[in-house]
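Let us work through a complete example step by step.
Step 1: write down the sequence.
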Amino acid sequence: MLSKRKSKGFLIGIAVAILLPLSFFLYYNDSVTHAIKIPKFYRPVAVDSHEVKGKMQYDTTFHKVNSIKLVNQLGQEVDLNKELKGKILLINFFFTRCPSVCPQLTNHISVVLKSFNKKNTDIVQFVSISVDPNDSVPALRAYADQFTTQHDRWWFLTGNKDSIYNYAKNELGLKLEAETPEDFIHSQQVVLVDSFRNIRGYYDGLDVNSISKVGDDIILLKLEKRKKK
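Step 2: predict the structure and record it as tokens.
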């Protein structure tokens, strides 16, 4: 575990790594996206072929993440795809009694959240899903309060354990590993899902180099979304 001093410096490093390139992308318009590497698609499900002017072309269809119904720290029952239609999602898994990994990962996500000002609330929704069915709404709220005051922009959610594990494994494609004696299973991976519900990124939530890319990729997806309109 990092000391408080090292941990603080670590988080500042993440903030700088995210904020500088983020401001760069916000400054430029959509015309520059051709020169920037757009986040790739994950989880192909089919490849279709067709002939164009005598040449075969191939189109890949990628998995679209189905929705899940959960309850957030505000006591609201929410359907992720319905309530957050048109928003990019940044999703991770945790549980409130997790002693070390979850707080560190959640701290890193809070830095990403702060890199987006309040005028950009339509860009991305932060979604943290508890893998412990015993995490009550008050427990989620108390945990969330440690990391954010923006409860509308960052949901901490609970629900049926089987549904959550199915969502993590089959919808998000996460390979989960047991972390506790209670057999709670979670991953330190953070998943980026675009507004069309395609998976566009996996990041190690504990690694500064990995998590520092999230802010850039969110902005690139937003620019890509504008070009598709």
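Step 3: interpret the result. The radius of gyration is 18 Å.
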